[in-house]
Automatic annotation (TrEMBL):
Subcellular location, record wording: Cell membrane
Domain Metallo-beta-lactamase: 516-711
SMART domains referenced in this protein's UniProt entry, alphabetically: Lactamase_B
Keyword field: Cell membrane, Membrane, Transmembrane, Transmembrane helix
Organism: Nocardioides pocheonensis
GO CC list: plasma membrane
Annotated region described as Disordered, given as residue ranges: 753-776
Name of the featured protein: ComEC/Rec2 family competence protein
Membrane topology annotation: Multi-pass membrane protein
UniProt xrefs under PANTHER family: DNA INTERNALIZATION/COMPETENCE PROTEIN COMEC/REC2, RECOMBINATION PROTEIN 2
C-alpha cells in the first residue's frame, strides 16, 4: 500500500513559503506565489485532486502572509530607527527567557524580552517588540515573566527576528513579578537543582539539562564531547524530553485506572506542564509539538497517523512562528521525527528477522534519526559522527531514569530536599553513565570524520544517505552483512586514518586547530616537541599532538591562565611524558592557575614561573622570554592578557615571535624595551583582536603571520583592522579557522613556507580549507 504523502507535502509547501518570504524580497515572493497560483489552476492532474493543490496553495499563502506580518511587526517600528542611531531610551519590558551568562573579558548576562513601551527623544510609544537585553551580572537572577522598567541604549539587532539589542544601564527595576503559575514552575526548576546538588559536577549539571533544558552548569569540554558523540540532542529541550515525561505520566495514569478521554486530558496537561517547565520559547514549543507527533507515532497505525501529524505540526508551527523555517534546531527536529516515522518501522521489521523486537527497535530508532539528520549535521558542524548510533544505543536505557527520576526528585525536593535527593540519586547515577559514554566515544581516535560544508559536499552526502535509506532494509535483514559492517565501523573508529603529507617534512611550528584559543607545537624531532598553550579542549589538543606523532613533551609553556590557553592541559599529559610546565609569573585568573597546579600535581610534573629575559636551549630550539616586561598593568583592559609570556624562538635559521594574548600596553612595553626586534614569523597576539600595536607589527619585518582563532567566535576575531594591518606589512596570513592546523615549514634549502591541514570544523564561507604556500 502506497503511503499518503499529501499531508507531509503540505508541511513542506508551508516551509518553502516561509523560506521564500524570509529569504527573498517581498515583491519577488509575491510574484512567485502568483505564478504558483497560475500553475495550480492551469494543471489539473487526475492522480492529484485540484482541492489538494488548492489546499497546498492556501497553506503556503497563509504561512507567507504570517511571515510578512512578522517581518513588518519587527522592521516597521520606531525601535529599528532608534537602534540605527544608537539612541538612549527608557521603557518597560517583559522577560521572555532566562538570563544567560555571556562570554567575554567582562561579565554580562543576556536574555530575550518583549519591549512594551518606549520613551526616546521626548516621545513615548506603546508597542510589543522583541529585543535582546544585555546587562551586568546584577540581572542574572531575573525570572521569566518579570516586568521591568529599564533605561539604556539601543543598538542594531543580531538577527532579523529581533528589532534591536538593548544595552541596559544600572540595576533592574522590577515593576511586577511573575504570576503564581510561573512562580510555581520556578520552584520546581530550583527543586531539580537541589535534588541533584549532592551529585558530582557532571551529573549535577546534566540532570537539569535532561529534564528541562537547563544546561547552564555544563562544562564546555563536556558539551563538545556530547557533540562529537552525537548526543547533543540530550542537552537541549527536544521531543525526547517530552516523550519520556508525558509517557511516564500516561503510564502512571493508567496504573491509577484513568482511561479514554481521561488519558487525553493527562497527556494535554503533561504537554502544557512540560512547556512551562522548559520555558515558553520557540525551541520548546517546537520540541513539544514534535514530541507529541512522536507519541502519536507510537500508537496504532502510528506510521500513517504520525506522518500526517508531522505535516500538520510543521504547518501550525510556521503559522505561529515563521522564523522557525530558518532555524537549524527546527530542521533537525523535523528530519529526526520524519526519519523515525518513515524509516524506523521497516528497519525494525528487517532486524526482527534475527533480533528480538525490543532490540530491533532500540537499533532502528537512533539509526533512522541519525541517517535523516546526517547531511544537516554535517552542514552545521563540518563533521560526520561515526559513533553516534552506538553512543545513543549505549545511553538509551539511562536517559529515561535520569529524566523521570530527576523530575520526580525535583518535585519532591520542593517540599523536602532530603527526600528529593534520595529519589534523584539514581538519576545522577544514570547521568554519570551517559557522561562516561560521551567521554569514551568522543575520545576514540576517529569518532568523527571531517566533511566540507559547501553545497556540493552536502548534496553528495545527502545522495549517499538517500541511497543508504533505500537499501538498508534489505541489508539489515541479513545478520552476516550487519555484523561485518559493524566490525568495519569499529575498526574505523579505533584505528586512526593516516593523513598523507601531514605533518609536512621540515615543520618547525604547528598552530593546532583547537577552536577559540592557542595551542602551539614546536618541533624537537624524534616524536618530541615543546607545547606553548593548550587550548580550551583537552580532546582536541590531544588529537593534534597525535596527528603530529608527539609522544614526549619536555616543556609546556602556559603564556597566561585564561581558559582558552590552559583548559586543554590534560590532553597534553594524556599518554605522554611531560618534563616541566612553565607559566606566566602573574597567577591571574586564579581559577586557571589552580587548574594548572592541580593537573600538574596529579601527574607529578613540576611547575615554575618564567622570568623576564631568561633563555632556554633544548635540541634545535633556542628561545628568550621577552615578556611580560612588568607584573602589573593597571592601565590594562585585561591584566592577564598583558601578563602573557612572549617568546622569541630561533630554530633552523628562522625567528618566530610568539605573542600570547598581549594587548596594547604590553605590546608597547615590548617595542620600547626590545630595540631592533625582528622576526620571520609572527604568531599574532590575542587571536587577531583589534588591539595591536601597529608600530611593533610593522617593524618586525615578518613574512608570515599565524592567527590561532575559532570559527564564528563570539569576539569577532580576527578583527578586519588587524587583517588590514598585516596585509599592509606584507605578511602572508594563515588562520586556523580557515586552514585547520597551520604549519610553519623550513625546507632543506632553508626556505620558509606554510602548510595547512583540512580544518576540523566548518570553514568561514569563501575561506581556504587546505593547501600549502611559499612565503615571499
Amino acid at each position: 500500500m502506497r503511503a499518503d504523502l499529501r499531508t507531509p507535502a503540505l508541511g513542506l509547501v508551508a516551509w518553502a513559503a516561509a523560506l521564500l518570504v524570509l529569504g527573498l524580497p517581498h515583491w519577488l515572493c509575491g510574484g512567485l506565489l502568483g505564478l504558483g497560483l497560475l500553475a495550480v489552476l492551469a494543471r489539473r492532474q487526475r492522480r492529484l485532486p485540484v482541492r489538494t493543490q488548492v489546499g497546498w496553495l492556501v497553506a503556503g499563502a497563509a504561512v507567507a502572509a504570517s511571515a510578512l506580518l512578522h517581518v513588518e511587526s519587527v522592521g516597521v517600528t520606531p525601535v529599528r530607527d532608534l537602534a540605527a542611531d544608537r539612541a538612549a531610551v527608557q521603557g518597560t519590558l517583559v522577560v521572555r527567557s532566562d538570563p544567560v551568562l555571556g562570554r567575554g573579558r567582562t561579565r554580562f548576562v543576556h536574555f530575550r524580552a518583549v519591549l512594551e513601551d518606549l520613551t526616546a527623544r521626548g516621545r513615548r510609544v506603546r508597542l510589543r517588540t522583541p529585543v535582546v537585553v544585555i546587562a551586568d551580572p546584577r540581572w542574572a537572577d531575573l525570572r521569566l515573566g518579570t516586568r521591568l522598567r529599564v533605561s539604556g541604549r539601543l543598538d542594531r539587532s543580531t538577527g532579523p527576528e529581533l528589532a534591536a539589542v538593548l544595552i541596559a544601564r544600572g540595576p533592574p527595576t522590577v515593576v511586577a513579578s511573575p504570576g503564581p503559575l510561573l512562580a510555581a514552575v520556578d520552584h520546581v526548576r530550583a527543586g531539580i537543582r537541589r535534588a541533584v546538588a549532592p551529585q558530582p559536577p557532571g551529573p549535577r549539571a546534566l540532570v537539569p539539562a535532561l529534564v528541562d533544558g537547563d544546561d547552564g552548569g555544563l562544562a564546555d569540554d563536556l558539551a563538545a564531547d556530547f557533540r562529537t558523540a552525537g548526543l547533543t540532542h540530550l542537552l537541549a529541550v527536544s521531543g525526547t524530553n517530552l516523550t519520556l515525561i508525558v509517557g511516564f505520566l500516561l503510564v502512571m495514569a493508567r496504573w491509577c485506572g484513568v482511561r479514554a478521554y481521561g488519558l487525553v486530558a493527562v497527556g494535554v496537561i503533561g504537554v502544557v506542564g512540560f512547556v512551562l517547565l522548559a520555558r515558553t520559547e520557540p525551541s520548546v514549543l517546537r520540541a513539544a509539538v514534535m514530541g507529541s507527533v512522536a507519541l502519536l507515532g507510537l500508537g496504532p497505525r502510528g506510521r500513517e497517523r504520525g506522518a500526517r501529524a508531522l505535516g500538520v505540526a510543521v504547518l501550525v508551527l510556521l503559522l505561529v512562528d515563521p522564523w522557525l523555517a530558518r532555524s537549524a534546531g527546527f530542521a533537525l527536529s523535523v528530519c529526526a521525527t520524519a526519519g523515525i516515522l518513515v524509516l524506523a518501522p521497516p528497519w525494525r521489521d528487517a532486524l526482527g528477522h534475527w533480533l528480538p523486537r525490543w532490540a530491533a527497535e532500540a537499533v532502528a530508532v537512533p539509526l533512522a534519526a541519525q541517517l535523516a539528520c546526517t547531511p544537516l549535521v554535517a552542514a552545521i558542524s563540518g563533521q560526520v559522527s561515526l559513533v553516534a548510533v552506538g553512543a545513543n544505543l549505549a545511553v538509551a536505557w539511562a536517559v529515561g531514569p535520569a529524566t523521570v527520576l530527576g523530575l520526580v526528585g525535583g518535585v519532591l525536593a520542593v517540599a523536602w530536599a532530603p527526600l528529593g535527593q534520595v529519589v534523584a540519586a539514581p538519576a545522577g547515577w544514570s547521568a554519570a553513565w551517559i557522561i562516561a559514554v560521551a567521554r569514551t566515544s568522543a575520545a576514540l581516535p576517529v569518532a568523527a570524520i571531517g566533511w566540507t560544508a559547501d553545497w556540493a559536499s552536502v548534496a553528495l552526502l545527502t545522495l549517499l544517505c538517500g541511497a543508504a535509506a533505500l537499501v538498508l532494509a534489505d541489508v539489515l535483514a541479513r545478520r552476516g552483512l550487519v555484523v561485518g559492517f559493524c566490525g568495519v565501523l569499529v575498526v574505523a573508529t579505533l584505528v586512526p586514518l593516516p593523513t598523507p603529507g601531514w605533518p609536512p617534512r621540515g615543520w618547525v611550528l604547528v598552530a593546532c586547530d583547537i577552536g577559540q584559543g592557542d595551542g602551539l607545537v614546536l618541533n624537537l624531532g624524534g616524536h618530541s616537541a615543546v607545547v606553548v598553550d593548550t587550548g580550551p579542549d583537552p580532546h582536541l589538543m590531544d588529537l593534534c599532538l597525535d596527528r603530529l606523532g608527539v609522544r614526549v613533551v619536555p616543556i609546556v609553556v602556559i603564556t597566561h591562565f585564561h581558559a582558552d590557553h590552559v583548559d586543554g592541559l590534560a590532553g597534553v599529559l594524556s599518554g605522554r611524558r611531560v618534563g616541566q610546565i612553565e607559566t606566566s609569573p602573574v597567577a591571574d585568573p586564579a581559577g586557571g592557575s589552580r587548574l594548572v597546579e592541580s593537573i600538574a600535581r596529579r601527574a607529578g610534573v613540576p611547575v615554575r614561573a618564567v622570568t623576564y629575559g631568561e633563555t632556554t636551549t633544548i635540541g634545535p630550539l633556542r628561545w628568550q622570554v621577552l615578556g611580560p616586561v612588568r607584573t602589573e598593568y593597571p592601565d590594562s583592559d585585561s591584566p592577564p592578557n598583558d601578563a602573557s609570556v612572549v617568546m622569541l624562538v630561533d630554530v633552523r635559521g628562522v625567528r618566530l615571535l610568539l605573542m600570547g594574548d598581549e594587548e596594547r600596553p604590553s605590546q608597547a612595553d615590548l617595542r620600547r624595551t626590545t630595540t631592533g626586534l625582528r622576526a620571520d614569523v609572527l604568531k599574532v597576539a590575542h587571536h587577531g583582536s583589534s588591539k595591536q600595536d601597529a608600530d611593533l607589527v610593522e617593524g618586525l619585518g615578518a613574512r608570515l603571520a599565524v592567527i590561532s582563532v575559532g570559527v564564528d567566535n563570539d569576539y569577532g576575531h580576527p578583527a578586519p583592522s588587524t587583517l588590514q594591518l598585516l596585509r599592509d606589512a606584507r605578511m602572508q596570513v594563515r588562520r586556523t579557522d580557515l586552514d585547520g592546523d597551520v604549519a610553519v615549514v623550513v625546507d632543506e634549502e632553508g626556505r620558509l613556507r606554510s602548510a595547512s591541514r583540512m580544518p576540523r570544523v566548518r570553514p568561514v564561507p569563501g575561506g581556504r580549507t587546505s593547501g600549502t604556500g611559499h612565503v615571499p
